[in-house]
Specification:
This protein has about 250 residues and is of the alpha/beta class. The chain has 7 helices and 12 strands. Helices cover about 30% and strands about 30% of the residues. The protein has a 7-stranded mixed β-sheet, with helices on both faces. Strands 1-2-3-5-4 form a 5-stranded antiparallel β-sheet. Bound molecules: S-adenosylmethionine (SAM).
Length: about 250
């Protein structure tokens, strides 16, 4: 009996999975350059980017075809940048051909969508100090030639300065460390061109579990602004990432 139930569950899951994959897309709307909202026949809207590597899914996300173009669903529970967009980001800032420094790239979930947006002429220098996610990232970067994985500590930017060389157009930081803002500023000073853009996701609990997130966010904002990062947008990432905020702005030292 248990075996029959298990088989039934597996069969239903396979049918559901295939149904999801084959869901008919009825419209695609570009909300920022390279970022889309895809609507299916049931009226469900999903954030997506155009897949740079056709047929390949990076983290199990849905692939969707419309008028001969393949899109990849951008899942807000998996990516804080997607959460920021859904929660009202006004300007994506990232453009085709940009050079970006990414601190805490992990296995490449968010960066794969940035890779879609910047296209083959852009480049992402991905800093990650943990070997496990780096292994997965290397596999992603073998297919996405615009991602350069670097097994480095973001606290020591001088250790990768020789690889990055000239200044980058933007920086994205998501390292969930108590001194993340200081690390971000250190990297801005070394690599970001004047007026280049920056994204920093801050998790209140990785700074202090006891104090209210609002107080922590205010303190972090002061550290960033007093060191030359001009904040243009601040977006809470709940419910997708609990007690997180994203500060987005420009490096104007
Ligand atoms: C929240 S995860 C990043 C998720 C990723 N940004 C995404 O959306 O796909 C944080 C990552 O930062 C890395 N990290 C933390 N401190 C770091 C440091 N000092 N240098 C490099 N990587 C670091 C962790 O190993 C972890 O993989």
């Amino acid at each position: 009996m248990t075996q029959v139930c298990s088989l039934l569950i597996i069969a239903l899951s396979v049918i559901y999975f295939r149904w999801c994959l084959e869901m008919k897309i009825v419209s695609v709307k570009e909300i920022f350059k390279g970022v889309f909202v895809v609507t299916d026949e049931l009226g469900t809207e999903r954030l997506a980017t155009r897949n740079l590597v056709a047929g390949v899914s990076v983290y199990g996300e849905r692939l969707m075809n419309f008028q001969g173009v393949e899109y990849r669903e951008w899942v807000p529970y998996r990516s804080k940048l997607a959460a920021a967009i859904i929660n009202g980001l006004k300007d994506i800032r990232i453009s085709e051909g940009d050079r970006i420094l990414y601190l805490g790239i992990a296995s490449g979930t968010t960066s794969s969508h940035i890779s879609d947006i910047i296209g083959p002429k852009g480049i992402i220098y991905g800093i990650e100090f943990a070997p496990r996610p780096m292994r997965d990232l290397v596999a992603v970067a073998q297919k996405r030639k615009n991602i350069i994985p670097l097994l480095k500590d973001a606290r020591k930017p001088y250790e990768y300065a020789y690889i990055i060389g000239e200044s980058v157009d933007g920086i994205y930081a998501d390292i969930a460390q108590p001194d993340q803002s200081e690390i971000f500023i250190r990297n801005c000073r070394m690599f970001v061109r004047t007026n280049g853009y920056g994204f920093i996701a801050i998790k209140a609990r990785s700074i202090d579990v006891a104090r209210p997130p609002e107080k922590i966010f205010e303190e972090q904002k002061k550290i960033l602004e007093s060191n030359g990062f001009r904040i243009e947008e601040e977006i809470r990432l709940d419910p997708y990432a609990k007690d997180h905020i994203m500060f987005i702005g420009r490096w104007k030292p």
